[in-house]
Amino acid sequence: MKSRLLIPALLLAACATLNAQSPATNSDPASSESGPLQTRYSVSVIDDATFYSDLRQPIPTVLNQVLVEPSFGLHYHDRLSFSTSLLGLAATYSDNYSQLRVKETYVSLSAGDFDFAAGRKMVRWGTGYAFTAAGVLDPPRNPTDPGDRLNVNEGRDMVKADYVRGPHAFSLAWSTAALAPANTTLHDTTAFRYNVLVHGFDTSLIAGHDRDSDSFGGFTFTRVVGQAWELHGEGLWREQAAALIGAKCTLHSGVTFIGEFFTPPNTAYYRDMSISPLAGRQHYAFFNAGKTRLRELPGWKEWDLSGSIVANLNDHSFTGVLDVNRWFGNHFSSYLHMEIPHGAATSDYGSAPYSTATSVGVRFQL
Amino acid sequence: MSNINSTLRWFLTLFFVSLLVACAMVSHAATPDAEALLKRSDTYRNGWPAYVVRVKITDYEDGKSDEEHLYEVSQKGTEKTYVDFMSPREKGRHLLMLGDDMWVYLPDTSRPVRITPLERLSGDASNGDVARTNYAADYSPVYLRTEKVGAVECNLLELTAKRKGATYQRILYWLRTDDARPVRAEFYLTSGKHIKSATFDEYQDISGRPQLRKLTLYDEIRHTSHSVLEYSNPTPRDLPDKLFYQGRADRF
């Protein structure tokens, strides 16, 4: 209940801030520049309710979550910076609980062609939209929610050095799993990446080692072909090969289609919880069609619409996903996210204990 | 007698050569150098080799303002543009353009996303309208004629895309005859469809350089909407190359 009081209080405070900053709002709502020091901040508040229907297990039918996500950045002389992004979560399900999570908090130093960063940080080396084979330090992808609707992804604790020269970039990162949650299978990871843009190919070579585990090596690429197509792919060898190939196509109308095929080996690193260790290599397909801002329809300019299907091709199970988003002015939006799994009770997606999960929410962003 | 004829022939030859040279010069003066005009017109939006400018876009629907977007655009040369989205509903997004290649960094997709040329056209003011303003680098100009826009005498150029990074396939571009200042433009797709028009409404003097301050884009498909782009605080700045590196998702 406290979180229920917290949200209106935060919104009132934010509105008061907006009013107080009214003249500045037109130029920049949440930043200040005074000499060499620049600051930026943002706050996001999400009230999300998920309704589960036709439950096959005796669990509550409604999950309520309130998430408060403040972010703050400080830059000094374009050289030294500090960034932090936190997540406060209050949830009501089988019991009430609240958590404070650190999504990112790091300092970075820029010196000539070198950049150094230390702290918890999100890096995104994978090029896949719904899946990733080579995103060895990336937050995990959730193919039924690749956009991370609630912004709950967290970074890895790491020390990272980048050297950028022309189109060439070299990154070396060492990430520790010491602060990772107990239920994760993360290891200390040392990873190296070389990235170059050549003939339109944005290409990366990735190599590294997980302490007390495997070494790995792989690549990623993206390429735009013609006016409407983008191709992307990833490959990584870690015990066995994992591969992803995908494409995006944009029509003149603004409708965008994304398709991906992903085949991971059934190893401990890639295995999903619902997959038996005895099952062989898995094959997944993802298809999405969406359009942001239905501006062709009068009165629908503030609406975004998207539909996806993610399927396990081995056990023929799939989940259909529908996303609808509607903006109200510059700070408020509401959304509907619906997941409809289908398949045998022991299958990858059919094993979900509900027939439909419908999430509705309100989001405030400052 | 032969001396007189010889002298006469010499004078006649000289006369015709002079006449040809004069005609050529007059003809040259009558047809302005389209390339030079286009390059000069670009200086009204790109006053320095490297600079930062704030762009505020206000969208109007049925004459009423319904949305505002704020961007900080960092540009280096004609090939490198970095756009920081600053409005609350777009916060965390960045857009990077390197020659013909373009990426957008969406905070909710966990990766930089390559943008296809068609995606550059979304919205009344497209990504290309904000990030791609060096027309001389993207288009081949041809001088068409002199034409009046309102009371302003203009040179009309036809620009044709010469690289795939160009936002539009064809542009009709009216430049004031006095100083090549952009006055009006019409934008066309590959299909020949007239998609947008623009009027270059106001200029401001920045350190002795006239720079564009206000531009209005009219949607020629949906005639009820238009966008006003206001440019403020253009500032020359030494921008490091690594600002324009496509692998950096962790921007400020």
Number of domains of chain A: 1
Order of helices and strands of chain B: HHEEEEEEHHEEEEEEE
- Coarse shape of chain B: elongated
Oligomer: heterodimer
Sheet bearing the most strands of chain A, described?
A: 18 strands, antiparallel, barrel
Q: What does this entry look like structurally?
A:
- The complex is a heterodimer of chains A (366) and B (252).
- With 366 residues, chain A is mostly beta strands.
- Chain A has a single domain, classed as Porin (Beta Barrel).
- In chain A, 6% of the residues lie in helices and 55% in strands.
- Chain A has an 18-stranded antiparallel beta barrel.
- Chain A is globular and about 55 Å long.
- By secondary structure, chain B is an alpha+beta fold.
- Chain B has a single domain, classed as Lipoprotein localisation LolA/LolB/LppX (outer membrane lipoprotein receptor (LolB), chain A), CATH 2.50.20.
- In chain B, 19% of the residues lie in helices and 46% in strands.
- Chain B contains 4 helices and 13 strands.
- A 13-stranded antiparallel sheet of chain B has the order 6-5-4-3-2-1-13-12-11-10-9-8-7.
- The longest helix of chain B is centred in the first third of the chain and has 29 residues.
- The mean pLDDT of chain B is 84.
- The interface between A and B is large, with 74 and 46 residues.
